[in-house]
Amino acid sequence: MYDWTEGKKVHSVEQLSLIGEQEKEAVKQSDFLVLLYPAGKSSHVELGIALGLGKRIYLYSPTNEVNEIEKTSTFYHVEGVDRYIGEFEDFMQYLVGKETMHI
How many CB atoms lie under 10 A from the CB of residue 76? Predict the structure, then answer.
């Protein structure tokens, strides 16, 4: 199982390739994806994979930036992306409530 929180140093393209394959497989095996805004470029690739696979997607932002036209992404606003703006603790309760419905 891939753990993105390990944050290992990468020293070669081969390592990048392995990590990319592991991240892709992790999205494929997931039930849903949580994107924490602001997110890096790899997160946006994972968002695209999840959208393509029809996964449930939750986008969390502490601010309204995801709705500001000059800061947002088109893919934050497509069908299948559940956006939540507010306090992180409130988002976690929201997420647990939504996912409990899928158990």
Answer: 20
pTM of structure: 0.88
Tokens of 68: 């500001």
- Sequence-distant (≥ 6) Cβ neighbours of residue 58 within 8 angstroms: 32, 33, 34, 35, 81, 82, 84, 91, 95, 98
State pLDDT tens for residues 20-68: 899 999 999 999 999 999 888 889 999 999 999 999 999 999 999 999 9
Q: For residue range 17-29, what is the model confidence (pLDDT) as tens digits?
A: 988 899 999 999 9
Spatial distance between the Cα atoms of 77 and 40, rounded to a whole number of angstroms? 17
Q: How far apart are CA 15 and CA 19, in angstroms?
A: 6
